[in-house]
Amino acid sequence: MTTADADEGWFYDKDAGHLVRPYAITNGRTGPVRDGFALITLVVTADPRADTSRLTPEPAAILDMCRERPLAVAEIAASMDLPVSVVKVLLDDLAEARLILTRAPVQLAEAPDISLIQAVIEGVRRL
């Protein structure tokens, strides 16, 4: 098979190039085991000197990107041009292997009761 024949096959798109399905990258898994990866969860490589030569390309790329500074899950997905769901599965694997550290977003405090706010406003008006 020549290169020209391969270019006309079902696995090649002129605009996108060679296509690899997301399930091939995640070994068929569709979601992470842990549900701790929000879009703004920060990820950093646990050991900046970690050897990535035995990893597949995508996890190795994540570790390389997160060596210098923490990146959000959304930033990693955008940089790698992968769906967020795929990146979450890869991050789950890296977290399980203790190759990354994550910091979940801080939960926002619940909003105060409207009646409390109205009572404060009325108290201020009386002053």
UniProtKB/TrEMBL annotation:
Q: Which domain of life is it from?
A: Bacteria
| InterPro entries to which the protein is assigned, alphabetical | DUF742 (IPR007995)
Name of the featured protein: DUF742 domain-containing protein
Q: Which organism is it from?
A: Kitasatospora aureofaciens
